[in-house]
TrEMBL record:
Subunit structure: Homooctamer; tetramer of dimers.
Entry-linked InterPro entries: Aldolase_TIM, PyrdxlP_synth_PdxJ, Pyridoxine-5'_phos_synth
Enzyme Commission number(s): 2.6.99.2
Organism: Helicobacter ailurogastricus
Site (Transition state stabilizer): 148
Protein name in the entry: Pyridoxine 5'-phosphate synthase
Pathway: Cofactor biosynthesis; pyridoxine 5'-phosphate biosynthesis; pyridoxine 5'-phosphate from D-erythrose 4-phosphate: step 5/5
Main location: cytoplasm
Catalytic activity as recorded in UniProt: 3-amino-2-oxopropyl phosphate + 1-deoxy-D-xylulose 5-phosphate = pyridoxine 5'-phosphate + phosphate + 2 H2O + H(+)
Amino acid sequence: MRLGLNIDHIATLREARKIHEPDPLEAIFIAKNAGVDLITLHLREDRRHIHEDDVKSILKHAPLPINAECAIDPEITKILCHLRPFKATLVPERRAEITTEGGLNLKHPQLKDTIKAYADCGIEVALFIDPSVQNLELACALGVKVVELHTGKFSNVFNTLYTGFKHHKNRLDLPKDSATLKNMLEESLEELAQSTLAGQKMGLEVCAGHGLNYASVGLVARLEGLSELNIGHAIIARAVIVGLEQAIKSMQEAMHAR
């Protein structure tokens, strides 16, 4: 299973002071040496962390494939079609959100044209979707070959159950009793498992990500048929304490633990 490192929050730290460091590009060389397979970054409309200049520099110098997450937005599409990352993963985006809150609206009126624009430039297109057979069928109908399952629901339930994590007011409200949470966790994990198998049968490459951490990643990583996990915040947060290389290696160990 491939590990994609999301480097957005290296840029988040830089933006706290609006200066030039830390440089996300520097992290990519460490990531490659540590065995990371690809780099994920999100060029948001509001440029809250990754900037266009970051993408240019990274695509010019990075020794790893680049997966650019992006909204269905004509300006962003134009920029990325010019810069040509290896893959463009279309995600929903809302200015008020702290992080991506769910899967893509697969009936978005501009979705087909956006997919075509990237495909015409030779850029692989992935759709970030909520896990369900219906969403997989819609993705197939749109002609894409890759989907990334949103693991946010699973991650939120896991964190609430095992860490007592309190959700931000604009996130999903969850029950407090552990029995209900355990049932929800099993249901969300089964939903991911069944969606992965269904996607495989449809000929899709199935990836996953969002909110996974060192404690929860093993449950998802062992699902049959997943080809890639994209993880950012947990690794970058750990890297502040132990360094990026060790943080990556610890995540790789957690992914392969049985």
